[in-house]
Protein: Enoyl-CoA hydratase-related protein
Amino acid sequence: MRNLQFLEATVIDGVALIELNRPEVLNAINRPMVSELVEVMTSYDRDPEIGAMVLTGKGRAFAAGADINEMAGDSPIDLELLDQFSEWDRLLALKKPVIGAVNGFALGGGFELALACDLLFTTDSAQFGFPEVNLGVMPGAGGTQQLTKIMGKRKALEWLLTGEKMSAQEALHFGIVNRLIAPELLLEETMKFAKTVAKQPPIAVRLIKEAVDKAVDYPLDEGMKFERKNFYLLFSSEDQKEGMNAFMEKRSPQFRGK
Ligand code: CO8
Structure:
């Protein structure tokens, strides 16, 4: 992997740990950082040694949004030609589970990045929000869509129109985050969870994530059909034979991702 300027990435026991690394500007997300994220995460996504990814931020923020200095002078044509969101969309197409550890501010594009994770663990002091309205703009990387799908139109508008910060307790209440964890244990507990996922049979994990993602957008009967096909597909895997044989032989399964 090439030298990373705005991220740190390491692999621990089958889990890729990716840390946003611009703490001096609260991990404000600039375009090269998005390119690095996409490059690193898509490469881990294809790596058979990796079973799950953890995304977090260094310092006192997960990410305080897109880099305002970078985009302040942009024209609509600049943005159209940059087409930065086609790159961003690749983060939403990752096949392996991504668990976000939100360690402080997750605002604007930072909140969108958190919402792009499959599960979110956080601490009591974390704050979430879409302050874009206070800058005369609005979310552009899925914020209005993702938040509305999670909390419904009325509640989502409350946050999007005021730009107010949501506490971690509120985020838990609305189902935005999975767990609140003591700050000193956040990374440890998130990694522990990710390592558990990384030990699961990878093809089953992959097809479960895919089916759950479909549930968000598909009508129930379409989603059920999709689920069934994935269920059938798993019966062509060696891991299905191993998992069921191991159960019947009363031993631990040895999954190989095949
Ligand atoms: N962009 C650039 N620099 C930032 C950003 C940001 N989003 N957020 C913080 N910083 C910088 C500050 O300018 C400051 O730098 P310096 O020390 O050089 O002055 C440093 O980080 C520390 O910040 P503060 O001194 O402000 O720290 P405070 O603890 O006082 O305040 C806040 C923390 C409340 C988080 C405050 O920094 C803040 O309001 N930041 C901006 C939050 C915001 O408006 N975010 C939305 C940005 S717009 C957006 O995200 C659009 C998304 C579109 C999709 C993009 C996909 C990538």
